[in-house]
Here is the input.
Amino acid sequence: MAKFKGTDLYQIDDLLSDEERLTRAMVREFVNEEFLPIIREHYREGEFPADLIPKIAELGLLGANLEGYGCAGLNNVAYGLINQELERGDSGLRSFVSVQGNLVMYPIHAFGSEEQKKIWLPKLANGEAVGCFGLTESDAGSNPGAMRTRAERTNDAWVLNGGKMWITNGTLADVAVVWARTDEGVRGFLVETGTPGFTAKAIHGKLSLRASDTAELLFDNCEIPEDNLLPKTSGLKNALMCLTQARYGIAWGAIGAAMACYEEVLNYAKDRIQFDDKPIAAHQLVQQKLVDMVTEITKGQLLNLQLGRLKDENKATHVHISLAKRNNVSQALQIARNARQLLGANGILDDYHSMRHMCNLETVITYEGTHEIHTLIVGEHITGHPAYS
Ligand SMILES: Cc1cc2nc3c(=O)[nH]c(=O)nc-3n(C[C@H](O)[C@H](O)[C@H](O)COP(=O)(O)OP(=O)(O)OC[C@H]3O[C@@H](n4cnc5c(N)ncnc54)[C@H](O)[C@@H]3O)c2cc1C
Here is the structure.
């Protein structure tokens, strides 16, 4: 058997095209050279490294699987690999790209007018503008159908009142895709953040996803021009379609975080000596943890690859994506916890990455549908019984 290299035990590389491998290599180099050297300070400060936005855009990572309007038009496997490599760096970095591409550019692309697409997509792709996505409210998380934010139609505008909570990119954004109840059901609006009555307040005190901007959005008689309604939105299902796109990227991203933890701790375990001059990697209980990690990473990589191929053939459903998000994030969290454990006391220092990934993954297992909600989505599919309430 060829010597096992890194995390590719099953020669999954051979299943990728040259373009997919090149995309992965490009993002890996960016993360290794420009992101990892600065993440520790940004994590400590609780700040997203916004200075990197032009570089992220220049690499074509924003809306990379969308066609036209300045987007890269990559296939979904290449797009998945982008997410994997970004989250090898930090879940906050991947979250920035996911929100901009899947939750802001995708709804404009899918539900926007031609004019909205021409105005917003090129500048969101080139990083000139940043977007955020407001669905969750303080009393409507897992059940967004309970939202209270309302938009009332006037003669030629809409007046928005309410608030959104936990909004990634909230204080950085130039435009917010906001979902609100109307007399015609839930609809999506493009809210320019300079609009009078709009406020974004940073949420402080996070112990997870610290290098990501998270905010509360408030709308106080915020007047939105008719032209900023996303015309093809006609219900909550459109917001959920955006989440399906983002959850796809998260399934790949979580495996990237797991790979970072595994690689860090494998190296550490080979060097760290305890008992009889033996590296800890030579102890059976340590090997068991390492083998569990690489097994779950391999399974997650294969799951992602087949999911990506299905998505490229338009055969991936929201159930496939829920299964992958649910599995890969919970496995990645377990891997990060075990990696932290094997690093011993050193593992609590931010000189090492595993505990940062572990803390981040506590958000990732909660947002974009909690682990339990994805259980219920897959459960409904296989049994035919919805069990949400
Ligand atoms: C850092 C961060 C960034 C975020 N970014 C965004 C963003 O950009 N835009 C946005 O709109 N939202 C965002 N969110 C919000 C996120 O999507 C919600 O937190 C998530 O949907 C869960 O909602 P909740 O926190 O209100 O938890 P709740 O819905 O109150 O759930 C609490 C617990 O109860 C469980 N639970 C709830 N209902 C059921 C049920 N029927 N059966 C079994 N268990 C159940 C949940 O699984 C969970 O464990 C973000 C959250 C975080 C933490």
